[in-house]
């Protein structure tokens, strides 16, 4: 089977999809990644070919940046609607860059002749390529895909179809017509809209270099709770803007990390704070708080009693698998929605978006650590996660879909 895998967005999107593409390659299937120049170097380390031809982050938001510079290209009302997260995601997922990318890669895609297209959840060029080639397409697990509103993308996606000579479908669920994949049980789904049920499976074990606990963490005392705090891999890179003055509405990541260290320092615990490789000169490890550039997060979570997270889909999934309750400090994207879901499932508490108040963070941590019900519910979620079928189930499902 030949699989075209389309990925855009952040490294988190890559981390969602590569366990499955590795499993596909190990099963003898051929993979071609169609991605952005921002992600191509990372995917070059994976089995399969890589083609960088999708619009990167700045190119996807170029219509808004043009309006901000010149007042041209969209109406004031359209620009204002970008403040609404659902509209912004739908717009950047369906802009004119989509049909331009499809035109540019179609000869190569015809030559590769995929049997199925596996796409990142909010990446829609894969849908149009699959429609051009007459093959099925499915979405991989994705935080952005969880909050993408199919009704908001339906009309602009039909405009892109018209530009490519494809029939307009006028069907919001066309982006899921062949199914979708997820890595959490339906009981703990983080989807924001009524969309078709997913085939669910367990993500594969982390790579070998992430299966050994660092010695300094292993030596932490066992008579106090262990708290892991992380802002993920994307916030340190995002900063406060994406060029052109377009605010992401997030705090300075250095301020967030300082607040986390100050907060956990007041708790009766041992703590590990992962900086996402962002250097902050004032952050120092102490006897009770380890500050690290990077940690093997899934492994540390197995030892943890509490996870302070920015609320990305990957981190939450890893916490569910480890049975660890959470304090969620959302920043942007799907994280605010995910934070609400964590509260709804009784798996933790949430904080205001982008807060940098150490006292507020510490109070939330104490509340979760003091209430055993959070841990009990997290452990129940872990059992449900462990009852999911293995990743080979998803590989077999894709192969069956390709033959239909």
UniProtKB/TrEMBL annotation:
Keywords per UniProt: Glycosyltransferase, Transferase
Broad enzyme group: transferase
InterPro entries: EryCIII-like_C, Glycosyltransferase_28, UDP_glucos_trans, UDP_glycos_trans_CS
Pfam families from the UniProt entry: EryCIII-like_C (PF06722)
Organism domain of life: Bacteria
Keyword Thylakoid among record annotations: no
EC number of this enzyme: 2.4.1.-
Ranges that cross the membrane: none
GO molecular function: hexosyltransferase activity; UDP-glycosyltransferase activity
Limits of the Erythromycin biosynthesis protein CIII-like C-terminal domain: 260-390
GO biological process: antibiotic biosynthetic process
Protein name: N-glycosyltransferase
Organism: Kutzneria kofuensis
